[in-house]
């Protein structure tokens, strides 16, 4: 019989180890984003111009992949910092493979949503669409996995970031509601597609 997933066994040493490893990993991810921003500023923001999402432009489609790694300045990056680290930690703690699969789905949903729905003339950057995707992932995962751990995580995420749901449809035109909304929807879809598969019961001979 396969052993249960330690990340859903709240209070066990394996649970805390998985959470700790996820937190360290996400701090490393954020450090990487800081390094990219440092390099970009030394290059006079040329990475932003080259790899940002340009809506409705074929040449801007590569931004679907690269734009989440770029930010318009230190203020922009720091505003995303807590969401990236905390929501990313909770999402990653459920397993690296599921996390990577979900993040790819979220990135495609958010990036393509920006490319299709944002008016021409904008250059869209930042990881906030991914962060909103992780938020949607955590909300829905508690339901589809029927896990008390994920229900608890969803509740914590709601308390910490529920107020940011108003950014799904913000009044400020400089904020990409398209990326936020499509990322959130992508996270909900990813929660269903990457849900835990419970082993099927097998017949035992009498």
Would you kindly provide a written description of the structure presented here, covering whatever features stand out?
With 206 residues, this protein is an all-alpha fold. The chain has one domain: Rhomboid-like fold, CATH 1.20.1540.10. 63% of the residues lie in helices and 0% in strands. The chain has eight helices and no strands. Helix 6 runs antiparallel to helix 7. The longest helix is centred in the N-terminal third of the chain and has 30 residues, at 13-42. It is globular and about 50 Å long. The relative contact order is 0.15. Mean pLDDT is 83; it is low at 1-7 and 202-206.
Structural class: mainly alpha
CATH homologous superfamily title: Rhomboid-like
How many distinct helices?
8
DSSP, total strands:
0
Q: Strand fraction band?
A: under 5%
The mean pLDDT is 83
């Amino acid at each position: 019989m396969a052993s249960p997933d330690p990340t859903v066994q709240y209070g066990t040493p394996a649970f805390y180890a998985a959470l700790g490893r996820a937190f360290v990993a996400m701090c490393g991810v954020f450090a990487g984003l800081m390094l990219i921003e440092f390099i970009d500023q030394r290059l006079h923001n040329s990475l932003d111009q080259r790899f940002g999402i340009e809506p409705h432009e074929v040449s801007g489609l590569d931004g679907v992949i690269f734009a989440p790694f770029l930010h318009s300045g230190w203020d922009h990056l720091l505003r995303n910092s807590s969401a990236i680290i905390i929501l990313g930690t909770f999402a990653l703690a459920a397993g690296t493979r599921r996390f990577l699969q979900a993040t790819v789905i979220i990135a495609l949903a958010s990036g393509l949503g920006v490319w299709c729905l944002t008016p021409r003339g904008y250059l869209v950057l930042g990881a906030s669409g991914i962060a909103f995707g992780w938020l949607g992932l955590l909300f829905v995962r508690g339901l589809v996995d029927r896990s008390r751990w994920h229900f608890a995580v969803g509740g914590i995420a709601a308390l910490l970031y529920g107020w940011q749901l108003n950014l799904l449809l913000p009044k400020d035109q400089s904020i990409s509601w398209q990326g936020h909304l499509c990322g959130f929807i992508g996270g909900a879809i990813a929660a269903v597609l990457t849900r835990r598969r419970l082993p099927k019961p097998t017949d035992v001979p009498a």
